[in-house]
Amino acid sequence: MSLPADFDVRERVREANDIVDVVGSSLELRRQGSSFVARCPWHDDKKPSLSVNPVRQSWKCWPCDIGGDVFSFVMRRDGVSFPEALKILADRAGIEIQRSGTPVEKGSVDDKATLLSAMKWAEERFFNYLEKSPAAAVVRDYLQQRGIDEENRVRFRIGFAPDQWDWLLGAALDAGFSPQILQAVGLALARNSGSGHYDFFRGRLMFPIYDLQDRPIAFGGRHVPMIGDQSGGKYMNTSETKLFSKSQHLYALNMARQPMQRQRQALVMEGYTDVIAARQHGIETAVACLGVAVGESHVRLLKRFVDQIVLVLDGDAAGQRRADEVVELFVAADVDMRVLTLPQGQDPADFLNEQGADAFKELVAQAPDAIDHKLARATDGVDLVRDTHAASAALDSMLRLVAKSPQNGNTLRTEQTVMRLARTFGLPAETLQRRIDEHRQDPRQRREFKRQPEPAAPPAPVRRQPITGIDRELFELMIEMSELVPQALEAIEPRWLATDTARALMTVYEDLELEGHDLDIQNVLLAVEDAHLKGVLVNFQQSVDDKAATVNGPPEERMQAVIDRFRGTELSHQRQQTLKELESSQLDDEEEMELLKQMFAQERTRQGLLTPPPSSE
Ligand SMILES: [Zn+2]
């Protein structure tokens, strides 16, 4: 093993991202003594339980028993892996992570940083216009009539694009953004004839869409009656750009993410105004797709944060059709999906305004799962007893659907579904299961499987072996006084430690020493990618501080004692090994003598180690 190749980049990224700033950009921090505290987003936190230590650059929530460094905070906050967290923090600090290929020219249409700042500039401009311009008063009134109050207008940063061809373009040059940049982020279009560009959004309410770092990356534009024409439709969204993909981003996910993580549930609605209406009624876990049905990438994204996805559909025929289309997707993705169909002719905003949030939550709680929903649809109006033709068609469509569920997925759920179908259609479960297996082997079915990306194999369960006893004492001492690390590395072999986790940690120390880095806890944290292990290290560090007042003797002596105990244990292992060899093997006299001599030598060393040194008095 050796240190990760990007260790130096990690160091730079860590230096450039103060943990107080990073945590403070997503949580409200309050100073408390030498630390900061915030309400923990991962449990229902009444008092601020999450603490941030600016000196150690660490964070910790005791009730959740989680903690770590700035990287593991971002990993948890955004539900990403270590390399992604590194990338996010590098972006934040403007540090370029070396990638293969040609470097991107600053300020060009390929430069993500420039595109992001153009979006930020435009978002502010749209927002300020709606907030402040006298000409926008009529639009503010319109929003009010539509039930969007000022608080939520500000919360969702709703803006307005006046009905002009160059309102944005005209100001962009002064702000340093060329028409090509505006075109690259989807805010301007090139004229078909001649040269020049024109604004893409004209006379529209602007709903910004943010990435998980709260940066605007796209807009939804809604036509306002009496302003401008409706060419382009009632809703217009930013097309695909370098920053935004409608199949991968969700409206308001940046805001809903933390409530989702607490409630383990996401509500996927059909429009951004639905999401805003939900928020006005205190429902914080709603998101919306933009101009596209829920797709695989959306599901994968949401699965990072929740266990259950509730699809909220308008009570019209189109809503039903959309549900039918996505049900298969959810079955194949092996996710707990519910389908909430609103009463005839209503959208979430109507329902919430008329019936209130409690009635809505009741609907959510009662929403059938995807298979039940499909079953109800397939058997709707079918006489299962008399109309055998229609009944078998319905059954077959259900079995084909169940056959799409991943075979390594939730088998319990599949079994329950089969039982349910058996009851509904009055057939033996074994027969149905056999039919499902046949569908799974059907080449047509297999092709369909292929078309969908392979479901990711479930990650191998990580055995979380706690580091305890003398292993823990050793690491705490190395954290307490990093000057003692070389001595410990010299005297103790990693294989003497009790668990894989402890051995791996020891190897990290070895690598750091080998490559001439400081042996402090900060560097160990930097070399470790596993969020859980980072948390363990922060715990050790805390416990070193807690014990500081009560611990006896200088660290040098305590380290020597720990080393002696390790060696003592190792020697008695060796002795047992030798004894075993003596008993089991056919040795000639000479070999036996040799082994015995070794054993006595080991024993003397062990005794010497275990005998307390004679008192000097
Ligand atoms: Zn917590």
UniProtKB/TrEMBL annotation:
Q: Where is this region: Disordered?
A: 432-465
Composition bias, kind Basic and acidic residues: at what positions? 432-453
Domain Toprim: from-to ranges: 264-343
Q: What is known of its domains?
A: Contains an N-terminal zinc-binding domain, a central core domain that contains the primase activity, and a C-terminal DnaB-binding domain.
Family statement: Belongs to the DnaG primase family.
Under the heading HAMAP family, the entry gives: DNA_primase_DnaG
Q: What is this protein called?
A: DNA primase
Which classification does the entry list for the species?
A: Bacteria, Pseudomonadati, Planctomycetota, Planctomycetia, Pirellulales
